[in-house]
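Following up on my earlier thread - several people asked me to post the actual chain instead of describing it. Fair enough. Here it is, all 382 residues.
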Amino acid sequence: MKLYVFFIYIMGYLLLTSQDEQSLESMLEGFEYPDQDNTSSNYPESAAPCSLQVPEFNSLAIMIVYIIVFLFSLVGNSVVVYVICSMSNGRNSTDIYLMHLAFADLLFCSTLPVWAVDFHFGWVFSNFSCKLFSAFQEASVYCGVFLLVCISVDRYFAIVRAKRVLSSRHLLVKVICGVVWLMAGLLSLPVAIKREKIYAPELEQYICYENITGESSDQWRVSLRVLRHTLGFFLPLVVMVFCYGWTVGSLFKMRSQQKHKAMRVIIAVVLAFILCWLPYNVTVLTDTLIRGGSLADTCETRYRVETALQVTKVLAFMHCMVNPLLYAFIGQKFRNELLTTLYKQGIISKKLWMSYRKGSAGSVASFRSRNTSVSVVNADGR
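Reply from S.P.:
Thanks for posting it. Predicted structure:
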């Protein structure tokens, strides 16, 4: 936990430029919110409107971070898709979920270069591009979270219930993945409809923002965020914690050489999801409560929340880069398939491939002597 806090601190330090001579009050002067109709309602008429911008953020550093995450995510998830599609022994249900998860991460990371340019130069693209890339990002986030839930439920039935009901019916699994993509697309429609290319005079540039006017604008935005909080994070998190909690408890009762490895994979899955997305969701929830009037609304509070949003958003975006490591590369089955694919393509020698296969053959054979071990390997050997 200390290492995680240190990582957040270093990230914030890298993303900020030094402006010690400029006080917080002076930075807040002369800036306005994009929602001009609702911003000054909580302040005296003589008071200057608060700022949504964080002037000392190093936009070039954030743009570079986005590009790095894009490159690593593109390579990692592309390898996952290629290896799973070329599996010689057939794909089970978890492999199908992982492949769709990789597609969702690829869709998400494809928007990062656009947001990188937007953060540094403003929105220089068309109004249609604003709607399209906003919808892509929203749909990929929902799809990724829903697929994580599907994986947790699949492993729960495989280990706790010792059943492969869904795994034996690939058509049903593909239908579930189709429903997940459909739901994610429908949930992204409000953002696609409301997002527009808007000129912000206080920033002297165009932005891609939700064009909401009228007295109910804040209520509409708060309702949309509540939907994101419930369906996009907290409810899936509850399902994942329940499924993986029971799974870990069942693994403790098994006399299997693979239970410790399976536990590491499961714990890594949950921790990565929480560490990447929880800070951002908590910060967005705080901002939602401020907009809804449940928390004190001051310029200093809004400034600090906006600063936290920028830092935690970078951490959340990194999740698409971490997914290939957690769900694929640390698993024995995927490593074997990856090495086999590399050997068939002539990238590695037969000696290296055979030496690794011989090293893992004994451990694989030892599981198959027990039914419980087979269940663990099939469910968690990814």
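Residues 1-10, 13-48, 362-382 have pLDDT under 50 and may be disordered. That should answer part of your original question.
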